[in-house]
Amino acid sequence: MLKDYDTSSINYGMLELDQQKELEQLTHQEQFTTWMKIKGISLVEDSRNHVITSNIVQIS
Asked: How many domains does the chain have?
């Protein structure tokens, strides 16, 4: 689903060191989705027209 995203430019500098090390163990797609979760952003795919929209989710 996220294969078209360029994850090489994601700035991991804003994350804690243990989060960075955890992300390094993952594939690029897994890194991207994990980074999005940490940042509180979710990707919602509309399968009808294959449009991916991002929704900002409030973290409590």
From this structure: 1
